[in-house]
Amino acid sequence: MKRVLFIVNPRSGKGSIKYHILDILDTFSKKGIDVTVHITQERLDACRTAMEEGGNYDEIVLSGGDGTLDEVVSGLMKGGHDTPVGYIPAGSTNDFASSLKLPVRMGDAAKIAVSGASRRFDVGAFNDQYFIYIAAFGLFTDVAYQTSQEAKNVLGHMAYLLEGAKRLFNIRSYHMKVRTKEREFEGDFAYGMITNSESVGGFKKITGNDVCLDDGLFEVILIYQPANVIEFQEIITSLMTGQLDSKFIETFKADELELEGTEEVPWTLDGEDGGTHKTVKITNQKQAIPIMIKKERK
Ligand SMILES: Nc1ncnc2c1ncn2[C@@H]1O[C@H](COP(=O)(O)OP(=O)(O)OP(=O)(O)O)[C@@H](O)[C@H]1O
């Protein structure tokens, strides 16, 4: 009998898992699965549970948003477990779920979680932490975790945008040295993102058209500090149209990079608080985690 640990974040998104949980458990029962349910009680509970329990199950299924997925993947990586992950997206943005092409309906996602195909995806190592699809600093990055859960639930995307707009008048930059295997450069950056995702903050294709989630490479976008509103507008237009060939933007792929700041820089990992760091070393752990996705048609 397949043993599954089902980790549920009751607070993700609008908390709508409560309307679906019986059907999901019924789906698992009909597949003959021996399921243990763990309802997360607080931040980092999912991480701790995956780290401590990950090795005792054939699979971990989670219901939550990007933050909960980050916690489960981080926990499995820290615990050294190679347990497959089933993902029932229930957050407000679900960026990575959209990259994985998982269905929006929870019942459909539950079926894929236990009967789909397991495929290995890259994971980012960030000093001694992990991320599944984005590590970012600067403009907007503190928006995700400073926007209250209540506001996110009521307003969804609008909450992020409103919170972000409030900050436009407050742009600041971080001086950093950037080192990759190929090059070294430095500058004053207003924003930086190291990603493995087709969608960021609900925006599709913002990371380019040739994103591959298991190629061992990150897509890196670094934006120099704009001197005025016109330059800022130019940068936004570049990002929105995907024309990243701009003197204000550095964009490249890398399997590892180091960013050395002159001061402590606040980071976010998968939309959650990633702490402040002066120097970060980011390396791609190629195909480190198995995740269940839709079976491809022959
Ligand atoms: N019982 C709980 N009470 C409060 N917070 C919790 C609880 N369980 C988990 N959390 C925290 O809730 C936060 C939000 O989770 P998550 O990112 O999964 O949902 P979301 O923010 O709605 O989705 P998304 O990131 O996709 O927009 C995470 O930081 C997680 O640690």
UniProtKB/TrEMBL annotation:
<dbReference type="Pfam" id="PF19279">
    <property type="entry name" value="YegS_C"/>
</dbReference>
<protein>
    <submittedName>
        <fullName>YegS/Rv2252/BmrU family lipid kinase</fullName>
    </submittedName>
</protein>
<keyword id="KW-0067">ATP-binding</keyword>
<keyword id="KW-0479">Metal-binding</keyword>
<keyword id="KW-1208">Phospholipid metabolism</keyword>
<comment type="similarity">
    <text>Belongs to the diacylglycerol/lipid kinase family.</text>
</comment>
<dbReference type="InterPro" id="IPR001206">
    <property type="entry name" value="Diacylglycerol_kinase_cat_dom"/>
</dbReference>
<keyword id="KW-0808">Transferase</keyword>
<keyword id="KW-0444">Lipid biosynthesis</keyword>
<dbReference type="InterPro" id="IPR017438">
    <property type="entry name" value="ATP-NAD_kinase_N"/>
</dbReference>
<dbReference type="GO" id="GO:0005524">
    <property type="term" value="F:ATP binding"/>
</dbReference>
<dbReference type="InterPro" id="IPR045540">
    <property type="entry name" value="YegS/DAGK_C"/>
</dbReference>
<dbReference type="GO" id="GO:0004143">
    <property type="term" value="F:ATP-dependent diacylglycerol kinase activity"/>
</dbReference>
<feature type="domain" description="DAGKc">
    <location>
        <begin position="1"/>
        <end position="130"/>
    </location>
</feature>
<keyword id="KW-0460">Magnesium</keyword>
<dbReference type="GO" id="GO:0046872">
    <property type="term" value="F:metal ion binding"/>
</dbReference>
<keyword id="KW-0594">Phospholipid biosynthesis</keyword>
<dbReference type="InterPro" id="IPR016064">
    <property type="entry name" value="NAD/diacylglycerol_kinase_sf"/>
</dbReference>
<dbReference type="InterPro" id="IPR005218">
    <property type="entry name" value="Diacylglycerol/lipid_kinase"/>
</dbReference>
<dbReference type="GO" id="GO:0008654">
    <property type="term" value="P:phospholipid biosynthetic process"/>
</dbReference>
<keyword id="KW-0547">Nucleotide-binding</keyword>
<dbReference type="InterPro" id="IPR050187">
    <property type="entry name" value="Lipid_Phosphate_FormReg"/>
</dbReference>
<dbReference type="Pfam" id="PF00781">
    <property type="entry name" value="DAGK_cat"/>
</dbReference>
<keyword id="KW-0443">Lipid metabolism</keyword>
<dbReference type="GO" id="GO:0005886">
    <property type="term" value="C:plasma membrane"/>
</dbReference>
<keyword id="KW-0418">Kinase</keyword>
